[in-house]
Amino acid sequence: MISPLRRFILLWLACALLAAACLNSPAQKGSQQAPGQPGAHPTIVFMTDFGTANDAVAICKAVILGIAPDARIMDITHQVTPYSIEEGSRFLEAVTPYYAAGTVFLVVVDPGVGTSRKAVVVKSKKGQYFVLPDNGLVTPVLDRDGLDSAREITNPDWMIQAPISSTFHGRDIFSPVAAHLAAGGDFSLVGPVLSQLVRLNPKTSTTTDKGIQGDIIGIDDPFGSLITDIPGDEFKKLGYRLGDKIFLEINKKSVILPFVKTFMEVPVGDSLLYIDSRGRVGIAINQGSYSRKFNITPPATIFIPRKGAPIKGK
Fold first, then answer.
1. Of 2, 164, 202, 305, which alpha carbon lies 20 to 30 A from 257's?
2. Which structural domains are found in the chain, ordered by start?
3. In this predicted model, what pLDDT tens digit does every residue of 202-232 receive, in sequence order?
């Protein structure tokens, strides 16, 4: 006959063991597993220049989920300016710091589809994977995070199990490879090691004793603000302070803009120069589109003189 006290102790021990087993179960540990490993909830971050007026993005996602049904698919954008490798690389560089090691980035901006350009998987030293064409898209990320290794995609078992199209590698090659990686596939099986990748060499601003010569590299849609390649830290070396009026040139036309911290420091409809959220010089209209009002789109040039220096004779 078990005494009430002994029965209570045995019941307490059983409950403690059950709780410990639950805490150590795969379901509880799933959030601690590395993304891309079996049992985890892998993340694929997807970006293209396909647009959203057709079925291409939906087809790619269907291919992914057919291979990795537990994958979470996050979209950067599918509105990259068509064929603009530079714009795609800029978006990719901006987004990647906010995702964890093990994330798989699927990027299809591929004007060379169907040619001799390689399809690749790149692993950064941060432990993120990039499935994309070898056309320089990943250059800015690797310049910042470092290259761990790269492989050419050649393994047909990792591609769609149907004839490969010459014009839709996003569906036939890149999406299934991203899915296999996210599902825990061995990176080394994708194909042979690549010793060298195509590099993108985007323009950068130039600082001289007269000022900074740079370029308008993008439009911040849908707002129409101008994105420049002038780093805020370089701009600050010119000597300007918040509140100053700046005489500059855009496409060699003289412009006067106030240097302010945020949009509402000027009246609605007025123009301004500011440092944007990515630390670059930006030009905008408060509640309006600078690009549309002044008909400025990339490529365009910008020159900002040093404070007190004449804008001419640069």
1. 202
2. 33-189 (3.40.50.10790), 206-305 (2.40.30.90)
3. 889 999 999 999 999 999 989 999 999 999 9
